[in-house]
Specification:
The N and C termini lie far apart (38 Å). Strand 2 and strand 3 form a beta hairpin. The chain has a seven-stranded mixed sheet with strand order 1-5-4-3-2-7-6, sandwiched between helices. It contains six helices and seven strands, in the order βαββββαβααβαα. By secondary structure, the chain is of the alpha+beta class.
Length: 169
């Protein structure tokens, strides 16, 4: 299991989504032991990723992740689709957005165009269903317990080095 930065994992997922833009599933939850927000991201033809992250400040999110498996069992896939709503990974090109705003295109039109696959500065390369069910999240953590623990340990080092666990004094 290769552990990568948050940016590298998101790049891997977006690259995979070029061939499979739809049909993704995700499960979101919190890991209170290491104060991370966790996201399992899965596609039946790609496999499953785990991303552990935290918001360092309003402008920066840091984290790590890994591809956990190339395939998952049907019962895990069923868990991922339970209690699901919509999710997507959004990419923005600020220069293109500003150019279109200066041309008089309203922000709502730029956002709406992304939903329909038109690029006016915002794209959504990964789309699918997501679950925030604690039951689903816990089942996934149990299913991938060794990998989850390894990522949690590495995350603790990252967060500790960054001062996440340091109290104000």
């Amino acid at each position: 299991m290769k552990i990568k930065s948050r940016k590298e994992i998101l790049t891997d997922i977006i690259r995979d989504a070029q061939h499979h833009p739809r049909g993704w599933n995700a499960a979101f939850g919190k890991d209170p032991e290491v104060s991370s927000s966790d996201c399992f991201i899965f596609h039946p033809d790609i496999g499953i990723y785990l991303l552990k992250e935290y918001t360092k400040n309003p402008f920066e999110t840091k984290g790590i992740g890994s591809k956990l498996a190339r395939h998952i069992d049907d019962d895990i896939h069923e868990q991922l689709t339970k209690h699901a709503g919509d999710f997507g990974i959004i990419q923005g090109n600020i220069q293109k957005i500003l150019f279109n705003l200066n041309k008089g295109i309203p922000p709502q039109t730029i956002l709406r165009s992304a939903m329909h696959g038109e690029d006016l500065g915002i794209t959504i390369p990964v789309q699918g269903s997501a679950s925030t069910s604690q039951e689903t999240f816990s089942a996934l953590c149990r299913s991938f317990s060794p990998q989850h623990k390894k990522l949690a340990s590495r995350f603790e080092h990252l967060a500790s080095d960054d001062g996440l666990y340091t109290a104000y004094g």
